[in-house]
């Protein structure tokens, strides 16, 4: 279980996160939505300490982090081992083959033998449908394939939570489908996931919980049913702005 | 004409031998030491400014500034002819006397290290932030990220400018003639003094430097190709 209490983060004089309080339960998929620049990526990146909030408490199972105190590198490393991260821009290691990208963490960080790590890596690549690309370099793959490798890379660390920062925003729709299919499968297997996305259809179908973030604040924290069926005015506006039908409706009126 | 051919044919082995004994070893040893210095200096310059890193950073900045702001020939003269007069009671009562080899390799290493440090610093900075983040996110420590992810990619980027530095260094070793090292240029001067054919001798030694550097250019091309296997390029 992940718990955030009174978390604040500023960039210069811009307050990116304001008094964030929420929980992420195990075996659940949480989807974070909100307009661009709302702080949803900052919120996600704070969970594996790529961003360091200035205040608040962060509980990860039995590990407690007080953001007002300096973080020890041991705390940071343990926490990062327990969270996997998937980035919008994939960020695969271009100088390593696909299978070595997936093996890198297990071999270097978990100190697995290359043989063991390779076996797991190939299983994961099969799972994301890319076993035949094991020896290719990332530059030889499409964006969607690269993102699926990135998912396999984060799964290889056997993380307790997988964090995904707009995993399909850089992809064409037909490539997006392949990635979403993998994520759907993970959600069905009850992996613990936290996903920042603009894809509301996807949010509706996989989310156990939705967070709506705007201007650094959580404005909604609840189930998809509540989010889509009884939205507040602000959320209704957001949903309308995100959907083409309403735009064409307005055009017709 | 015959006599000129004769001069050339007898001079080539002598100059080539000097190349094998001095020019090439000095260039290679100095470049290896210089590269190690350069990586360390680049990492210090890129390190966050806190604690005793501030002192290391100041030293790194001073070092690069000093060796890029003064002529290499003057540096050689200070180290070889100047340091013997640096007499410090208790430490160096008789000054620092270095043999030509040591003085040469030290100066060439420090000089090329200062230039290469900037090359390596820039190539590390050219690797996208996302590479650091991805490596950190799988739990790697900073030294692991550098060793496994950043430096291998930075090496590829820095290959052309580092080759520039190495080729320059090979030619700059001719300055070692001034500190009594009998390298290629010194040998050609000695022969010219005997046969009164400076035009022939200096053109000949220039040609030999050109051949040496051409081999290095070819090697650069080969290494670039090899290290770029993973990159999709327009050609």
TrEMBL record, chain A:
Main location: membrane
Keywords attached to this entry: ATP-binding, Cell membrane, Membrane, Nucleotide-binding, Transport
A Pfam family reported for this protein in Swiss-Prot or TrEMBL: ABC_tran
Locations listed in the record: Cell membrane
SUPFAM superfamilies reported in the protein's UniProt record: P-loop containing nucleoside triphosphate hydrolases
InterPro entries in the record: AAA+_ATPase (IPR003593), ABC_ATPase_HisP-typ (IPR030679), ABC_transporter-like_ATP-bd (IPR003439), ABC_transporter-like_CS (IPR017871), MetN_ABC_transporter-like (IPR050086), P-loop_NTPase (IPR027417)
Keyword rRNA-binding: no
Keyword Thylakoid: no
Gene3D superfamilies: P-loop containing nucleotide triphosphate hydrolases
Molecular function in Gene Ontology: ATP binding
Membrane topology: Peripheral membrane protein
All copies of domain ABC transporter, residue ranges: 2-240
Protein name (database record): Amino acid ABC transporter ATP-binding protein
Species of the source: Lactiplantibacillus dongliensis
